[in-house]
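ARCHIVE RECORD
Type: protein–small molecule complex
Small molecule: glutamine
Source of inputs: curated submission
Record status: active
Notes field left blank by submitter.
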Amino acid sequence: MAKARFVFVTGGVLSSVGKGIVAASIGLLLSSRGYSVGAVKIDPYINVDAGTMNPYAHGEVFVTEDGGETDLDLGHYERFLDVNLTKKHNITTGQVYLSVIMKERRGEYLGQTVQIIPHVTDEIKSRIREVAEETGVDILIVEIGGTVGDIEGLPFLEAVRQMRLEEGFDKTLFVHVALAPELSTTGEQKTKPVQHSIQELRRIGIQPDIVVVRTRRPLEAEARRKIALHATLPESHVFNSYDVDTIYRVPLILEDQGLGSLVARRLGLQDGKPRLDEWRWFVEKLTNSSRVVRIAMVGKYTRLRDSYISIVEALKHAGAHLGLKPELHWIEATDIEEGRVDVETALEGVDGAIVLPGFGKRGVEGKIKAIRYLRERRIPTLGICFGLQLTVVEVARNLVGLEGAHTTEVDPATPHPVVDLLPEQRSVDRLGGTMRLGASPVKLVEGSIAHKLYKLDVVMERHRHRYEVNNKYLDLLEAVGLKVSGWSPRGLVEVMEFDRKIHPFYLGTQFHPEFKSRPLKPSPPFVGLLAASAGIAF
Ligand code: GLN
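STRUCTURE (tokenized, with ligand):
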């Protein structure tokens, strides 16, 4: 039996009601009491991981230190808990079935009929326990994605129902997060959907210990009373997560209601005073900083903001650190490309810009136009991954004079493949999990902007890309002022920046610095961008 306690978080009524934030908040309330906490996200879809999913539908793919392509909730967990999680912290139906079927083929279930109960549920339980054992945490939060009642979620709910029996009542806790909608005509809070979702949970044998009700405005006493009654819980076990100005305030409002203390006591842990001072400081800085910096966000999936959620959060962390309020101006590169807006109008009046990561051809010429404008107007810019690669293309074309220069991702027949596949990537024929993924060391060049920002010679940053800047063109690029300021151990380009004579602040990173930004440890490239955009020395 694992030594860890388990907190299972389920959701009712609707998805996207902030279950991940509640799960992360419970984690923070426990870690701030001195306990080690991890968090697992269960995604009941059949994909093995999030790597091949469209960011429009699912939001960002969050990359872990060990190269997992995971659900964006892992990003919330890492930011709230200030820990590095692994790919094992994201369990999907695809992974579970894949391994059950492989075991069956290897003959590990010889003679048996392989079934959802017990084989699939055993696989789920052993994956959850494996994370708890390998990480040795005191508490493992396990969030079950989707909504109670979904067909896909059933084997997972059954597995955690069994875990209560096997781990013991005092080692397990069920938290149900459900939405109580408000009628727009009368403003009345309706509890019926919450009641039904609790019934649905009970029907499969799970009685929640705690209910967190999501509402627009603070929960009314009468609504709380009704929910408690239907949930067979004392009113003190019904909590309320109402809309607040920032997700980072959610743990604080739940702490004020006594959630941290209840969870600790219920799990047989000593309850202490939580150390949330720094967190509170961060929330105050975040919400009180009033000096605006306008940052253009140039990319392709800009209509679903969740596609770039870690970048948006990283800007908030850096903003709070500097006492600045980043105001984001989303610029859809396809609009520039297809002539719906011109680049001058799109970028007029911005103080700085991020050229966002991305894949594929659509919107690329729009991004290149934006990059040229940002370079010529000397606007502070951070190019991330594809953003760096397309800067190389822009500079090769317009400063070096290599007509038709391109990345072979977009133009495989370009005469000047300034961004190209490495030989070993050429032979890869599958798309799932085959990119350069996860953290690896980056050696920063002394005297560079990057070195000045990180204040370190070597940093570990996370990657998710297939193409690389082509070293054959480096001499030409450096001759026009685009210099390499960070290298991988095998000599691949990791960071590039313009000579200060050409541009005051341009940083392009092949890695994704956003994945390691934390509220109290802002990522240096974002701090640099905001400082440069606001004219603050760094
Ligand atoms: N499409 C580019 C590549 O695969 C960049 C990827 C990214 O921006 N994450 O290399």
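CURATOR ANNOTATION: The longest helix spans residues 116-135.
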